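Amino acids appear as letters; backbone shape is given numerically. Here is one record.
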Amino acid sequence: MSKILAFFMAGDRFMVTLFAILLIFYGLETLNIHQAAGEGMVHSASFPRVITGFGLLLVLLFFIHRGTKDLEIVDIKGKIAEEIVDLMPLWLAVVYVACFEYLGFLTATFLYVTVTMKYLGQKTWQGSAGYGFGLTVTLFAVFYYGLLGELPRGELLKLHEWLPFLEDIRSAITG
């Protein structure tokens, strides 16, 4: 069992295995895309299915090319923990995207930037929160007022209800 785990988890094989798992989920989601009326042989799900197929082919070629060379007996638990720590910015981004709709743009972006800045070496939480606040306000202004985009308001904290002047500013800009 440990040799099988080592085959999929040793070195850069861990990232390729994660990529394969994501591709499989992506490919399975294409089964939920139904063909619209009037579409021929090529339809909405064709491109994602082609991407999935080519991606899985690349994964297969990677494992065939590597074979069993570069496999060393490693501490799998330690290696996985090390990889998880190395991928922390990716995990933070995944959590940000997952919470984006529920928390809303303002809250999710502030928390994401604050935690990411602390992880990247900001000395204090107050400094990280300052960066988080500044970047959140800047991005909000660009997307909400500048580009007139609709951003998720969130279900947990109704900040737009607490800050009604946000709509007043937008109304004044759009005229």
